From TrEMBL:
<feature type="region of interest" description="Disordered">
    <location>
        <begin position="376"/>
        <end position="549"/>
    </location>
</feature>
<keyword id="KW-1133">Transmembrane helix</keyword>
<dbReference type="Pfam" id="PF03816">
    <property type="entry name" value="LytR_cpsA_psr"/>
</dbReference>
<feature type="compositionally biased region" description="Basic and acidic residues">
    <location>
        <begin position="38"/>
        <end position="48"/>
    </location>
</feature>
<feature type="region of interest" description="Disordered">
    <location>
        <begin position="1"/>
        <end position="48"/>
    </location>
</feature>
<dbReference type="InterPro" id="IPR004474">
    <property type="entry name" value="LytR_CpsA_psr"/>
</dbReference>
<comment type="similarity">
    <text>Belongs to the LytR/CpsA/Psr (LCP) family.</text>
</comment>
<keyword id="KW-0812">Transmembrane</keyword>
<feature type="compositionally biased region" description="Basic and acidic residues">
    <location>
        <begin position="471"/>
        <end position="491"/>
    </location>
</feature>
<dbReference type="InterPro" id="IPR050922">
    <property type="entry name" value="LytR/CpsA/Psr_CW_biosynth"/>
</dbReference>
<feature type="compositionally biased region" description="Acidic residues">
    <location>
        <begin position="407"/>
        <end position="454"/>
    </location>
</feature>
<feature type="compositionally biased region" description="Basic and acidic residues">
    <location>
        <begin position="506"/>
        <end position="516"/>
    </location>
</feature>
<feature type="compositionally biased region" description="Low complexity">
    <location>
        <begin position="23"/>
        <end position="34"/>
    </location>
</feature>
<protein>
    <submittedName>
        <fullName>LCP family protein</fullName>
    </submittedName>
</protein>
<feature type="domain" description="Cell envelope-related transcriptional attenuator">
    <location>
        <begin position="121"/>
        <end position="276"/>
    </location>
</feature>
<keyword id="KW-0472">Membrane</keyword>
<feature type="transmembrane region" description="Helical">
    <location>
        <begin position="72"/>
        <end position="92"/>
    </location>
</feature>
Length: 549
């Protein structure tokens, strides 16, 4: 029994120990579960943070991709715009290159530098440039052409420039000729002189008639521009500098104003060829020198590209307008009448723009009818012969009067009368000298009845071949004429005009003191090359717009 009791006690102890062990193990298990729980929570937080970080990274990458896509899209848009702009520019450029550039060119007889209204436009040209082919066609509008120049006014076309400068002149040409003028350029003699001098001059065949007049024009051009030159020695082929070329372009006294426009166009053609063969430095020098002297609405940026590619351009045709014409007095003006304006305008468009289907609008027809009514020339005329150079009429040389043999008895009877007349003449000369104390011995008398107060290149002074300097009035040696006593001259026979178009101040000096290096006096009463043209005909150098007979 004791053994069983002991065994029972042992079993109870073992059960208690086992319980203790189980309790300890259960406590350890609980502690172990709590650690696992904490470890799980930390892992959860770590995973969440990692996921958040990953999400940020993914978002950042997505944003970068999005921005990259935006940049690519923007670049594509810009490229598309550039391509589109290039296409549009190419189309516009092609349309522009395929079109025409029409320029109105005016040359004014301005000796005071004025290029605006108040100046007479002796040169009026239409210069039409085909941008695709480089062809240039030049048409001179005759300055005495009777056209509409205002709202209701009809006059010579150069009156438009005189009254309103280039703006009104361009408007008149556009209205009468139904053309769109894109640009204009106005120059004076000095600009042309400088341009041709820089290009090295031009070679021109001078006829006998042209030679008879050109040297007096050279003298006047020297005095007007202030640029020195030489007079020509003989007709034939001559190398002309700027002054001589301008003088040549102004000649008309030996033939007509129509032929003068042909000389002007010839100088333009020759200068164009010299410029095409010149290097860029020379062309640039022309631009730098001449461009500041002209009045124009053409920008230098438009001129430089053309000057750089001047070899691509060529003058194909030059002519004068109107093609069919007659001269007629309207009011007190000698005018060039287009017969008719409508038919001439149709020909002009065919020439300039190759427009064979052109018909004149009602506005041109209305002007044409008014011109026909004023002139009485209503029928369409035939085209006149083209103007030309190298012709003209050589002026007749004045012959010395033939001396007749006078019987001795008549000589004796008239000797006393001649002595009396000589005494009276001497007395009159003394009184004239006293009445004008500024005039010296042999002063040039003023003719109050002379209607031509302006002394142009028309004078009776025979040229030498020496150099000409502006304002040269130095006394020169005798040129072979017997001048024991100075011969009185009228203002019509005096020397070339100064820049103002009026007689030079040297008229107050004696003829011997005021002889320019290039001229000598001719006997009083003679008329010769360059005599002042006082007739109010078409193209008269002394004519102003609306000049009267």
């Amino acid at each position: 029994m004791s053994y069983e009791y002991e065994d029972e006690l042992e079993r109870m102890k073992r059960r208690r120990q086992e319980k203790r062990k189980q309790g300890a193990s259960s406590g350890q298990g609980a502690a172990s579960g709590s650690g696992r729980r904490h470890r799980d929570e930390g892992d959860y937080l770590s995973s969440r943070q990692e996921e958040f970080e990953n999400r940020k990274i993914r978002h950042s990458r997505a944003m970068k991709k999005k921005r990259r896509r935006k940049r690519i899209f923007l670049a594509v848009e810009v490229l598309a715009l550039i391509i589109l702009a290039s296409v549009i520019f190419s189309v516009i450029k092609k349309q522009t290159d395929d079109g025409y550039w029409t320029i109105a060119v005016f040359g004014v007889d301005s000796r005071d530098g004025n290029l605006g209204k108040g100046s007479l436009s002796d040169v009026e040209m239409l210069c039409n440039i085909d941008k695709k082919t480089g062809e240039i066609k030049i048409v001179s509008v005759f300055r005495d052409t009777y056209l509409k120049i205002g709202s209701d006014e009809y006059h010579k076309i150069n009156e438009a420039y005189f009254k309103g400068g280039p703006k009104q002149a361009v408007a008149a040409l556009e209205e009468n000729l139904d053309i769109q003028i894109d640009s204009y350029a106005t120059f004076n003699w000095k600009a042309v002189v400088d341009a041709i001098n820089i290009l090295g001059g031009v070679d021109v065949e001078i006829s006998e008639a042209e030679f008879a007049y050109i040297n007096s024009f050279i003298t006047e051009t020297v005095n007007s521009t202030g640029v020195g030159s030489y007079q020509l020695k003989s007709p034939g082929m001559n190398h002309l500098d700027g002054v001589q070329a301008v003088a040549y372009a102004r000649l008309r006294l030996m033939d007509t104003d129509f032929n003068r426009t042909a000389r002007q166009r010839k100088i333009v053609e020759l200068a164009m060829e010299k410029a095409k063969n010149a290097d860029w430095a020379t062309r640039n020098n022309v631009l730098v020198t001449v461009f500041p002297q002209i009045s124009t609405n053409i920008g230098i940026d438009d001129v430089i590209p053309m000057a750089q590619k001047l070899g691509d351009y060529h003058i194909t045709e030059t002519t004068g307008f109107p093609f069919s014409r007659e001269t007629k007095i309207i009011g007190k003006m000698d005018c060039v009448i287009p017969t008719t304006l409508e038919s001439n305008v149709v020909q002009l468009h065919q020439l300039l723009f190759n427009d064979t289907d052109y018909t004149a609008p009602s506005s041109v027809k209305k002007i044409s009818d008014k011109i026909a009514e004023d002139s009485g020339l209503t029928e369409v005329g035939e085209n006149a012969e083209p103007a030309k150079t190298g012709g003209g009429v050589v002026p007749k040389q004045t012959e010395a009067p033939v001396q007749e043999t006078v019987p001795e008895t008549e000589i004796e009877e008239s000797s006393s009368e001649e002595e009396t007349e000589e005494t009276e003449n001497e007395t009159e000369e003394i009184l004239e000298d006293e009445s004008d104390p500024e005039d010296g011995e042999g002063s040039v008398s003023d003719n109050d009845d002379d209607e031509n107060d302006e002394i142009g290149p028309g004078n009776n002074l025979k040229p030498t071949v020496g150099p000409i300097h502006p304002g040269d009035t130095e006394k020169k040696p005798d040129m072979g004429l017997d001048r024991e006593e100075p011969t009185k001259q009228t203002s019509e026979e005096s020397g070339p005009a100064g820049p103002s178009g009026q007689p030079d101040a040297s008229e107050d000096k004696s003829p011997a003191d005021k002889i320019p290096e290039t001229t000598v006096f001719a006997p009083s009463g003679e008329s010769g090359p360059g005599q002042a043209d006082t007739e109010n005909g078409p193209g008269n150098a002394a004519d102003g717009p609306g000049s009267q007979q």
